[in-house]
């Protein structure tokens, strides 16, 4: 019995070659540099054009030259340097304290289900409490000096660091741990010589991401009670309607965060080259 031949489905046309829309692939270095430059130049040009168009009064939207002049004035008076140092010191102290606490706890929570069951619920509850809401309690308990500001940054970052490190530990290949035990490794060797080195890039990435939150919180802390700091400078500028100083302080905050981000990325590249092979 003869059967009718089955027609094969028509071949789909292949995707046109593209550079810009390639999924999960890199782009040429010149194109990357061009796009990075545009990401800064386009918003800057829009700001400059809008500020000189006359549509918005200069007191509400100062032009870049006005902001630059305010920046230079704050620098000459020594206020910008002192405020930046004060804010940087608070962020460094609070975030370093949070990192010291979060790293061993996150590793222990990821490695031991018992520790995870003990700590994860309460840390999950604290994580959803807005850190600025702790400010009144911190002032009552710790006073108005540096301690409540550092405490606010610690509370606002420690739980996020801890949970991100815990998640990194959970994705370690089981084969690595089993191979260590097979070769006679002890439990502490698995923790210190297998798990910790393997997740070091993830730890640094978690710090890089959560560092932004610490800078947000230091501004909140300085708005409440401080004699110096970039947040305090913004509050004083708002009180006297000096929008150009507010813009200047915001730009300084953004540049500090950007430089710290680049520094941590570079640190990951230098200390964890094996992760990029």
From TrEMBL:
SUPFAM superfamilies membership: MetI-like (SSF161098)
ABC transmembrane type-1 domain mapped to chain residues: 84-268
Record's protein name: ABC transporter permease
Statement: the UniProt record of this protein carries the keyword tRNA-binding: no
InterPro entries according to UniProt: MetI-like, MetI-like_sf
The keyword Ribosomal protein appears for this protein: no
Family the entry assigns: Belongs to the binding-protein-dependent transport system permease family.
One Pfam family in the UniProt entry: BPD_transp_1
Keyword annotations: Cell membrane, Membrane, Transmembrane, Transmembrane helix, Transport
Entry's localization field: Cell membrane
Transmembrane region(s): 31-50, 91-113, 125-144, 150-169, 246-264
Superkingdom assignment: Bacteria
Main localisation: membrane
Organism: Thermostichus vulcanus str. 'Rupite'
Lineage: Bacteria, Bacillati, Cyanobacteriota, Cyanophyceae, Thermostichales
Topological type in the membrane: Multi-pass membrane protein
């Amino acid at each position: 019995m003869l059967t009718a031949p089955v027609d094969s489905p028509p071949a789909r046309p292949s995707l046109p070659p593209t550079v810009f829309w390639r999924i999960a692939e890199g782009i040429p270095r010149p194109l990357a540099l061009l796009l990075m430059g545009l990401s800064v130049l386009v918003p800057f040009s829009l700001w400059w054009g809008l500020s000189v168009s006359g549509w918005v009064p200069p007191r509400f939207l100062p032009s870049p030259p006005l902001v630059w002049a305010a920046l230079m004035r704050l620098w000459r008076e020594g206020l910008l340097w002192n405020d930046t140092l004060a804010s940087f010191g608070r962020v460094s102290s609070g975030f370093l304290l949070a990192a010291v606490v979060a790293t061993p706890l996150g590793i222990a929570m990821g490695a031991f289900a018992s520790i995870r069951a003990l700590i994860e619920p309460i840390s999950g509850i604290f994580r959803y409490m807005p850190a600025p809401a702790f400010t009144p309690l911190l002032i009552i308990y710790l006073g108005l000096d540096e301690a409540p500001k550092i405490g606010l940054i610690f509370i606002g970052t420690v739980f996020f660091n801890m949970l991100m490190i815990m998640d990194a530990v959970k994705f370690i290949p089981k084969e690595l741990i089993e191979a260590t035990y097979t070769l006679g490794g002890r439990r502490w060797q698995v923790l210190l010589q297998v798990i910790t080195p393997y997740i070091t890039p993830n730890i640094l990435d978690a710090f890089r991401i959560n560092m932004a939150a610490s800078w947000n919180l230091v501004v909140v802390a300085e708005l409440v009670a401080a004699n110096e700091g970039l947040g305090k400078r913004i509050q004083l500028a708002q009180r006297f309607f000096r929008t150009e100083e507010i813009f200047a302080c915001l730009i300084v905050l953004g540049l500090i965060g950007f430089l710290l981000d680049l520094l941590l990325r570079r640190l990951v590249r230098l200390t964890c080259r094996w992760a990029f092979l």
